[in-house]
Specification:
Structural class: alpha+beta
Strand content: 5-15%
Low-confidence stretches: none
Length: 380
């Protein structure tokens, strides 16, 4: 049985953890609820893209790359996004000659012919994702720590509100503002408890796991291997023939059976050290971190990552993003994630309002007590 003293301490921890992280928690949770519709939002913000035809047999990657080089001569094609269940088109990220290092142009292409449609006018969905994952400019571990804070709030809330079943259906509408908000706060937290644990745990994992992985590699890597590597030799001025992108994709699917690439990344294309990375899902599997890196000139795989065979923790890591964003069950699951995802944002607001109302109530009671004490002293 938890003592009253322990409950008071947990209540204080719960309150201050919510107050300190409240604003950031609201931003991350609200944007996360909306960002499940990232692709739909991008189509809504670019109506012309939604009207493009969807091809049952999309144009080849080689045709797409050729169209990009024709439309943007001298530009660097960095990434090609393949059509999916929502987006009927190819997309490519192109860095034009002379553009700043951090400036890329997102280009849409027809899926049936690979013809360049033109630059994408709005990337609202991507901006929302950047807000949710990085708070626009911050490192991802900040959002990871918010996930940990959310787990602390959940754990302390469970201990504080021990009568969970009774509070599931408790809503006293005719009482004071603080009582009404407190009942709403508790019932919303309880009804969405399982979802909140899932979102907090997966968010904390994706934000903090890379940080711990880098720290582990730093500790375990011998000092000789961390020495400064010699500068890469300048690439030859003569272009090197590249393998067909479609052939390289077939090689990637042989290396990882069932690979359904979502993105194709091109690095140093046209040089002797060119590489192509195929990243995506696995057919019939939830994991979303399958990747194959291939030497583009020779067609030899350099790095293969299949989460099904790379060990338990790799498989867990591959499941985190689908579970966090709910992009594996169609539109119905996205709506469920949206409504449940709004509850943590409401909890951050309601918790802050309850805390402010309680503080104001204590101030009024203190002033009343001082006035009563002053009246007694004057009467005496």
């Amino acid at each position: 049985m938890t003592s009253q003293r322990t409950l008071n301490r947990l209540f204080t921890l719960h309150s201050w953890a919510g107050i300190v992280t409240g604003l950031l928690m609201f931003i991350v949770c609200f944007s996360g609820a909306v960002v499940v519709f990232k692709n739909e939002i991008d189509l809504w913000a670019n109506p012309s893209l939604a009207q493009l035809p969807r091809s049952e047999k999309p144009a080849s990657l080689d045709a797409v790359l050729a169209q990009l080089h024709t439309r943007y001569p001298g530009a660097t094609v960095e990434t090609i996004a393949l059509p999916d269940a929502v987006n009927p088109s190819y997309f490519a990220f192109v860095r034009e000659r002379g553009a700043p290092a951090n400036t890329r142009t997102k280009v849409a292409l027809r899926s049936d012919t690979g013809t360049v449609v033109g630059p994408v006018d709005s990337q609202l969905g991507q901006y929302l994702r950047m807000l949710h994952v990085f708070l626009f400019f911050g490192p991802r571990w900040i959002v990871g720590f918010l996930g940990v804070a959310m787990l602390v709030l959940i754990a302390t809330g469970i201990v504080i509100h021990r009568k969970i079943l009774a509070e599931l259906f408790t809503q006293r509408w005719g009482r004071s503002f603080r009582v009404v908000m407190s009942d709403l706060h508790k019932s919303a937290g309880i009804w969405g408890l399982g979802f909140h644990i899932l979102i907090a745990a997966t968010g904390a994992w994706m934000g903090l796991a890379p940080l711990f992985e880098q720290g582990y590699q730093y500790i375990t890597t011998p000092a000789a291997m961390t020495a400064t590597k010699p500068a890469r030799k300048a690439e030859a001025s003569e272009p090197v023939p590249m393998q067909s992108l479609d052939t390289l994709y077939a090689t990637a699917q042989q290396a990882v059976p069932g690979l359904e690439a979502r993105y194709v990344s091109l690095r140093r294309w046209g040089s002797s050290t060119a590489e192509v990375g195929f990243t995506g899902n696995l057919h019939g599997h939830l994991a979303s971190t399958a990747r194959v890196d291939i030497h583009a000139a020779t067609g030899v795989p350099r790095k293969v990552h299949d989460p099904r065979t790379a060990g338990f923790w790799s498989l867990v890591n591959g499941l985190m993003e689908p579970l966090h964003f709910g992009d594996f069950g169609g539109l119905a699951l996205k709506w469920l994630y949206f409504f449940l995802g709004m509850t943590p944002a409401f909890l951050s607001i309601s918790g802050t309002l309850i805390w402010l109302d309680a503080r104001q109530q204590r101030r009024r009671e203190g002033e009343a007590a001082q006035g009563a004490a002053g009246g007694i002293a004057a009467a005496g």
